[in-house]
């Protein structure tokens, strides 16, 4: 009798996956890094639970703010996006991750960090003994730049007030900038990532740390170890937890 169990088995692909997992295990010291697929499930936009709406001091909410700006055309990216990508996660999160802009997967789904870089971010958050449901994740730009090019200064200037308002509404205890573009936007600096990492910054009174963008880790896995050190520091700063 023919054995059909291996019909779809790709040995090379499986070996690549195993190698990637082993590299991640080393880079992240084995902390929660090889995780069951179920725990990688992306957090839905949490609009139905009581925690979904957090009233800010001025009576605003993330949900109503999203509704106000979701048809934005303040910069040319509004003409080329498939979907506006506001943010996801706990609207009352203590930790807020800020990336630079949606990519192809995010543009298609209307959610931040849902492609390969997003899967890696989910793993990193898991390694920190947290979940995507506990943190808040967004980008500086809410619309995808064509071909994932870098955000342009005028686009950042147009969109940045939206990020500022999100931070006001979420009121995180600590912000983590993923990559130099987010750090440059919030810190008003053009310093290199190397100079920004490992220092405790402030954004309008909120502590802010900077680490690599997960996409950079996909291109340069050697950055994973430094990223893990940043994340251990972030967790310790946040609540004293030693990872
Ligand atoms: S990127 Fe920002 S400013 Fe530009 S259209 Fe989108 S939401 Fe508006």
Describe the structure.
There is one protein chain. By secondary structure, the chain is of the alpha/beta class. It has one domain: Uracil-DNA glycosylase-like domain (Uracil-DNA Glycosylase, subunit E, 3-Layer(aba) Sandwich). 41% of the residues lie in helices and 10% in strands. It has helices at residues 11-27, 62-69, 77-80, 104-109, 116-127, 153-170, 180-187, 193-196, 214-219, 223-239; strands at residues 88-89, 95-99, 136-139, 174-178, 201-203, 206-211. A 6-stranded mixed beta sheet has the order 1-3-2-4-6-5, sandwiched between helices. A hairpin with a 2-residue loop joins strand 5 and strand 6 (206-211). The longest helix is centred in the middle third of the chain and has 18 residues, at 153-170. The chain is globular and about 45 Å long. The termini are far apart. Mean pLDDT is 85; it is low at 1-5 and 32-59. Bound molecules: iron/sulfur cluster. The site of iron/sulfur cluster has 12 residues, from helix 3 and helix 6.
